[in-house]
Amino acid sequence: MCQKALVLQTYQPTGSVIETFLTECSDIIFNYEQNLADVIQQLISCRYDYIICCEHLPDDTLSSLEQLKQAHDIPFDTRILAFSYELERSHKEQALALGVIDFHDINHIENYADFFQQGELVSSGTILLVEENEDDATLLTSLLEQRGHIVNCFTNIELAYIAVKQLHYDLLVTDLFSLSKYLNKNQLISTINTVVLSNHNKPEMLVDLLQLGVADVINKPIVPESLLLRIERILKTKQSHRDELKHKTQHLLELSTKDALTSAYNRRYLEDVIAQRINFLKRHDEPFSVLVLDIDNFKQINDTQGHQAGDKLLVQLVSLIQYHIRNIDCICRYGGEEFVIVLAGCAVESAMIKAEKIREHVETTGMTISIGVAVFTDASQTLLVDEHINVADLAMYQAKKAGKNKVVLYSRD
What percent of the chain has pLDDT over 70? Predict the structure, then answer.
């Protein structure tokens, strides 16, 4: 199922660069807003998997992020990304402390191409690294990033502690000197799996750290192979728990957005898809089509053959339709024996050809359907989401009146 991202782009040139990049991520639905108030309103009414903030200057980005955090309680599993120009390390550290998973320079946006893959992060883990020695910090960051991990590095333990409270990390890797400032209060260790890098090889210190809840203690100088094996052992355990939770969450999401009988999407999901298509029409002049179809004489089938036979036909119909549509298209059960198909990027000719192929294929099974087609190419139209469905529904009823088993294109005339 597609994930959803909310994009704040107050500076249009910056937003255009980001939007061009994001449109290639076909497994994610993007909603774009140009002011912070609209973003906050969106977050109140809808849950998003990603929030992406695009500003010209990093200070503007930080200001927007601070206002956003103050105005709305963002779920911990919503990932926040930021993009800007003229970034310095201090900007990135401030953003990370605000709960941003990464603050990236737009000039190097091509380096971010692998961040999204089928709507998920491709890295193995998100690691918070605290190391006052800059040479060690550079070495550790390089080692971990080469293995596909996202590494947020701090030289300041106070900023790191703020970051832990703002963003969900899989692992904290810290030098002993930095961590010692928080050992008495046990503030970090109780929050996150922690690996300590130590210059001391005293058994009693090792015991004390493990009793405090530290996951592992690694002595310096660092042996890369040993470090990676021990860190990834901890991450593997963490990942297995996360995968189990993700599977359960995904199952619940599917229950909330899919029809239990046919596995087609439901009305709730349909509204999101049409809203996304309207957005693309306005921004990119990309047309879309809505098909409303209904099984002919379905009540008679239920009455004579029973509801189980009717249910079997509904499942069969969805399977046939899915054969003809693409991943970026969508089929939803609208109610009873009525279904809605949304075709992305389809104008009149391609939509009518697609509808006719579906009708012909269904007819070979012994049942027939009537299809109404509505095509939307005018970005100046101000129709509501439901109205896009209603006009296709009118065309479907015209197909019924014309003798059923037909495809009719909606016309205002």
Answer: 85
Q: Which tens digit of pLDDT belongs to each residue from 56-77?
A: 888 888 888 888 877 767 765 6
| CATH number assigned to the domain covering 265-407 | 3.30.70.270
Length of the chain in terms of residues written: 413
Q: d(Cα 73, Cα 69) in Å, to the nearest integer? A: 7
Query: Which residue, chain included where needed, has tokens 């971990």?
Result: 144
User: For 1-113, which CATH superfamily applies?
Assistant: Response regulator (3.40.50.2300)
| CB-based burial label for 73 (10 Å; 0-12, 13-18, 19+) | exposed
Q: What is the pLDDT of residues 256-268, one digit of tens each?
A: 888 989 999 999 8
Q: How many separate helices (H) and strands (E) can be counted in the chain?
A: 14, 17
Work out the end-to-end distance of the chain between its first and last CA atoms, rounded to an integer number of angstroms. 38
pLDDT single digits (tens) 215-248: 888 888 887 878 888 888 888 877 777 678 777 8
Provide the strand spans (E) within 199-352: 216-219, 288-295, 330-335, 338-344
Instruction: Specify the amino acid at residue 246.
Output: K
pLDDT band at 18 (very low <50, low <70, confident <90, very high): low
Contact at 8 Å (CB) between 374 and 397?
A: no
Protein fold of 124-239: Rossmann fold (3.40.50)
Compute the distance between CA of residue 221 and CA of residue 199 in angstroms, rounded to an integer.
8
Q: Judge if pTM exceeds 0.70.
A: no
CATH 3.40.50.2300 maps onto the chain at: 1-113, 124-239
* CA nearest neighbour of 273 among 261, 281, 285: 281
